Amino acid sequence: MSETPPDSLIPYDEIVQEALRAVVGRVLGEVEASGGHLPGNHHFYITFKTRAAGVDIPDHLRERFQDEMTIVLQNKFSDLMVGDDRFSVRLSFNQIPATLDIPFSAITAFVDPAVDFGLQFQASDEIEAQEPHEGAENDGSGPDDDPPGAGTDDGSNVVTVDFGKKK
Questions:
Q1: Cβ(45)–Cβ(150) under 8 Å?
Q2: DSSP 113
Q3: Measured between alpha carbons, how far is 78 from 20 in angstroms, rounded to an integer?
Q4: Is 135 helix (H, G, I), strand (E, B) or coil?
Q5: Is the pLDDT of residue 130 over 50?
Q6: Cα gap 106→32, rounded to integer Å
Q7: Alpha-helical runs (H) found in the chain
Q8: Which of 38, 87, 111, 162 is found 20 to 30 A from 18 (Cα to Cα)?
Q9: CA R_g for the chain
Q10: Buried b (16+ CB within 10 A) or exposed e, 96-129
Q11: What ranges do the domains of the chain cover?
């Protein structure tokens, strides 16, 4: 009884991805509403596709991170603005300030290591496995932070949605 399930006429995977990206928007919106102050020890690693439609980052960052980039929102960030479909934030890279404008659709991962919470997303145009990318390097990370996925955590609080694509 190993029948292949019929193709769905409802795009469940897209609906779930959109809903989970809305979680990121709501969290960032609450931080924006609080004046840009993160509660307690919360801090965020946000990974996004640098060449996705609508991503606006300085050319020197796009050259360095040609596929994917991870930023840290912790101590040194400002001007966080959250819209319905994107957010922008001002960060410092080697003491050079830069404003990044990132659509939620470009995000591939969101992690809050303070509470072992993480979301991973499929890139909308991605078919093959992701290539490795350099870790977060903006000036906002503290000395005791580990990058997402580091340490002995079993990842039980990371939500991954992968419905797979039929060929």
A1: no
A2: G
A3: 24
A4: coil
A5: no
A6: 20
A7: 12-33, 59-64
A8: 38
A9: 17
A10: eeeebebbbbbbbbbbbbeeebbbbbbbeeeeee
A11: 10-34+42-99+134-140
Greater pLDDT, 83 or 160: 83
Q: What is the pTM of this model?
A: 0.73
Q: Which residue has the tokens 């819209």?
A: 83
Residues in the chain: 167
The DSSP H or E segment spanning 109 is strand 107-112
10-34+42-99+134-140 placed in CATH 2.40.128.600: no
CA angle (59, 124, 149) in 5-degree steps: 75
CA distance 80 to 77: 8
Check: CB of residue 82 under 8 Å from CB of residue 28. Answer: yes
- Beta strands 107-112; 44-49: pairing state: antiparallel
Q: How many CB atoms lie within 10 A of CB 23?
A: 14
Cα gap 113→41, rounded to integer Å: 9
Over residues 58-116, the pLDDT tens digits come to 999 999 999 999 999 998 899 999 999 999 999 999 889 999 999 999 999 999 999 99
